[in-house]
Amino acid sequence: MTSPKMKNISKAIILCGGRGTRMGDLTSNTPKPLVTVGGEPLVLWVMRHLYSQGVREFYLMLGYRGGEFKNFFRDYMKRNRSMVFTKYGYSIDGPSSEQEDWTVHLVESGLNTNTAGRIAYAKEYFSPGEQFIVTYGDSLSNVNLSEVEKLHYSEIFHEDGSAEDLPIVTFTGIPNRQRFGIIDIDDYGRVLEFSEKSVNHKELINGGFMITDYDVFNLIDKNSGDYSKTVLTDLANSGKARAYYHDGFWSACDSHIYVVFHDNVSHFEGKECHGKVHVCHRIHHLTLYTLCSYSYTHLQ
Question: pTM for the full model?
Answer without folding.
Answer: 0.77
